[in-house]
Structures are given as structure tokens and as C-alpha cells.
Amino acid sequence: MALRLYDTKTAAIRDFEPLQPGQVSLYYCGATVQGAPHVGHIRSGVVFDILTRWLEYTGYRVTSVRNVTDVDDKILQKAAASYAPGFEPSEDYPAEEPWFALAYRFEQVFNAAYGAVGVSRPTYEPRATGHITEMHALIQRLIDAGHAYPATDDSGDVYFDVRSWQRYGELTHQSVEDMQDAPDADPRGKRDRRDFALWKGDKPDDPTTAAWDSPWGRGRPGWHLECSAMSTKYLGSTFDIHGGGLDLRFPHHENELAQSAAAGDGFARFWLHNGMVTYEGEKMSKSIGNIITPEEMHAVARPVAVRYYLGQAHYRSQLDYKPGSLPEAEAAVERIENFLNRAGADYEYTAAEVMPDAFVAAMNDDLNVPAALAVLHETVRTGNSALDAGDDDAAVRHAAAVQAMITVLGLEELRAAEPAGAAAAEEALANLVQQQLDARAEAKAAKDFDTADALRSRLAAAGIEVEDTPQGATWSLTKGGV
RNA sequence: GGUGGGGUGGCCGAAUGGCGAGGCAACGGCCUGCAAAGCCGUGUACGCGGGUUCGAUUCCCGUCCCCACCUCCA
What Å value separates CA A336 and C1' B24? Predict the structure, then answer.
């Protein structure tokens, strides 16, 4: 069964066939680097990372591009505020920080947060500020085609002419007439209130570093323009998949589509949108203040559990965060981990040999990760049964299958969770623990259970968990701290 | 007002016109000196009202409620 994906534009699940056989071009919206990421941003990264991994497993060569919007009104506002009298510096926002320093700093914070949960770096991460030339070319094409115009006032803005583009609204299935008027929208020199800025004229107070010369005067790019310019530059005028959060459908993606299509580009063939992360039913967002940061999650669960949690729901579903969510994910992850550690790693199966058909079918069905996880857990259970029955061949084969599945889901670090290590300190620790375990084994052999239990308690107090198995006692560091 | 997505057992979360995905939690059993891990088993789930049907959680109509977007948003 071939891959099928839900496309927002056609509002239907369609067979996915790339433009070029064997190759997939994927563009997905990254961050406007005006602040630290929250969990919602990271979910989006995980979703498109899983998509990329699945496409690659399926045999495609994937070119993925995720933009960095490193100049916009909010970035400039925050930087400007840091120079204002009475500004109170905080951990996130120090005093007197130029806009480009702020943007670059948060770009790195974002990358660290993505990396912490195993989101692979895209093929390329272009920055808006590095593509002003391409944006100018696109604006010129739109003006030439009669779909953009310089502002009628002297602002130096250039707007997209929504009324000139019949298809405007096609992505989100809205007609311009039915759209609610934005009462706070500044009509400025617009022909229609819904016209949006392609280019924003320089204002007297703007930093000189945040303005570029253009045929329409000095200024900076409008928000939506960079994605059109950069996606088509690196992926072609028509490319396979455009992704992003559900909240980007309108206006961001609608406007991107309008710009590119009106300029004559085919643009994205599939539009994928991931669901929001909510907290007690409400969308996580800075303005509401119900943010959970990646740091807060990492404080209560290991990265692999955080990743499991963020990826476990279907990507189009809303994901509601609750205090118990992460411990639950941790428990599920440990179950998988325990099986892999029991089964050992002595197998040489290729992923294709052992990947369960049901897993493939689930992933091909619009990335049905919940169903895929069901297959994963069934495999763990069957593998555990095989171990209990002494059928090591079957167990090893199941372990290989689990390994193949968790690699696709980006949970492969589960495999490396064993306590033994090459580092000298770990070796020394292993020696000490083993001495304790030997002493305990002697006590147990002598039926001196008080001593045996005391030894186990002392290890537990030191953060070391002991488990008895038919092959003797094993130990591990207590998960998630003591 | 417009557009889109939902309401599933104690919780999370899928599929499906007919045999109750999967995980977490709970309970019972096996195993174990005990524990842990593991295995087996248990639970009268589909917002409400109609309709179609031999049969509806699933399809249709109505209705209530929730969420997202309508120019800051992952």
C-alpha cells in the first residue's frame, strides 16, 4: 500500500506520488525567532521529522527545508524594548540586545530544543535575511502580473492585491467576502483591508541594520514572502509537501500560496498541518501564558519520553498536555526499553526484513502513529512471551522489528539506555555495584533475606535499581532521577 | 457571521456497518523468599434525540457542547 496523506487544500486524503520519482521535496515552517520555543513548536518539529524518517525508510531521497524567520516586527520590537528606559532584563531578554543578536540567539535555542528530542536537522535552514534578492524578484513578478502594487501613501510598503487574485482563499476554503473584518487592521495605503504587505517601508525609528534597499525604497520583507521565495529557490517552483502548524493555515499559508500562484508558480502539491498542543483544552500560546517549555518537560522525563509523548497522537489531532502525560509516556517507553534489554542485541536483520506489515500500513495511512504504536507494543508483548517461553530466535526477531520501528519514530536512543559504558567512572561504578550484587547473591543463597534486602535498599538509596532475573540480578540507574 | 476539526471506558488515544486497537492506571492470577520485570485474565466505552438497516460508536437528519483560524501565532 502506498503512502496516503491528508491535504488541507483539497481537504481529502490522497495518494502521495512525488513530482520526481524517488525524491521528495519538503518545506515546513520553522520559527519566527523572537523568543524561546514552547512545546508546540517542538511537536511540529517532531511531526515533520517522523514524516521525513518515514519517507526515507520508504526509499525516497528527501530534501527538507525549514525556514528561520529572523526579521519581523516582533523581533524588532523586542530588541527596541531592551534599550528603552526602565527596561527590566530577564533570563530570556537581556538589556540592550540588537535585533539580529536576539534572533540568532533564539535560533540556536530552537535548534538545541529540536535536537534534544532527536529532530534531525533539515537538509537546509535558510534565513529570511539571506534571501532579500529573491524576494525582490518575486515582488517584481507580482507587480508585473498586476497582483501587487506600491502603497498609495508614501509609506514605501508594497501590497499583494487580494481582489486581483480570484483564487484567494482556496487553501482555507474561504471567500474574501465572508471574512470577518479585522477592526485593528491599519488600512494605510491599501486598496483593500485584506491586502497584505510584501514589503514594509523603513520607518524613521527602525534600525539601519534592519532595512535593505529595494526598487520601492528601503525596507524589510513582509512576513509571508520569505517562505515563497525560499521554498521555490531550493525546491523548485512546484514541490511536493508544505507543512506547518494548523494555526499557520491562515493567513500565513494562504498568503504564501496566493503570492506564489499569482506569480505563476505551481507551489506545494500537498499541504500538511499538525494539530495544536493545548493545556487544559486551550491552545498553548505566549499571549495566554499557558506555556510549557521544553525545559519543564525535560525536568520530569527523559528526552526519549518527551519525544514519545509529542509523537504519540495522530499529527492532525490536538494534543492536550496534562501533568500525568509525561510519566505515562515514560512508563510506555520503559516497557519497550525493558524488552530490548532483555532480548539483547545479537541480531543481524535488516529493517525491511522484520518491519511488520501492519506498521507499514499504519504509517502509510496518513502517518497513523497511534496505530503504528499499537503494532509496536504488540510486538513487544509477543517478544516478551517468546522470551518467557525460551524461544530466543523469535525474541531476537521481534527485538529487531522493535528496533526498526522505533528508529522510524525517532526513539532509537532507547537502545543505548544500558548502564554499562566505556567510561572509566562507569566501569568503576559497575565494579562496585557488582560487588554489592555478589554479596547479596551470597546472602540470598544462605536464605539471609534481611541482609539481601538491606543491600538492595542501600543501592536503591544511591539511585540504583536492582532486578532479579533467572540469569541473576541486573541493575540500572533509576529512571528520571531519584 | 464564515471556514475547518472534534466529543470513545478511571485517563490518554486509534480504527470500524456486525468478532471491544494500543498504552497508562486499577483489580485477580502465574512466576518470585519478597519486590521489580514479564505473561495470562477482568471492566456493560462511544455527547443527546430521531432516521436508514437484520444490525449503527460507525451512514443520514436534527441538536447540544468543545477546540482552532478569520491578517502576531508551530
Answer: 14
Asked whether residue A342, judged by its CB, lies under 7 Å from any atom of the DNA or RNA strand B, the reply is yes
Q: Establish whether the CB of A191 is closer than 7 Å to any nucleic acid atom in strand B.
A: no
- Chain B bases near protein CB atoms (7 A cut-off): 1-5, 11-15, 21-25, 32-40, 66-74
The answer to whether A190 CB is within 7 Å of strand B is no
* CA gap A260, A263 in Å, rounded: 5
* ipTM confidence: 0.94
Helix ranges (DSSP H) in A24-94: 39-58, 73-81
The predicted-structure confidence for A407-454, as pLDDT tens digits, reads as follows 999 998 755 444 444 556 777 788 888 888 888 988 888 898 898 888
Nearest nt to the A29 alpha carbon by C1': B74
CATH for A4-274, options being 3.40.50.300, 3.40.50.720, 3.40.50.620, 2.40.40.20? 3.40.50.620
In this complex, the answer to whether residue A274 has its CB under 7 A from any atom of chain B, a nucleic strand, is: yes
Q: pLDDT (tens digit, 9 = 90+) per residue, A157-216? A: 999 999 999 999 999 999 888 887 655 556 668 888 889 999 999 999 899 999 999 999
Closest nt by CA–C1' to A384 = B38
Q: Rounded to whole angstroms, what are the CA distances from A340 to A17, A176, A303, A403?
A: 35, 55, 18, 8
Grid cell locating A380:
513487544
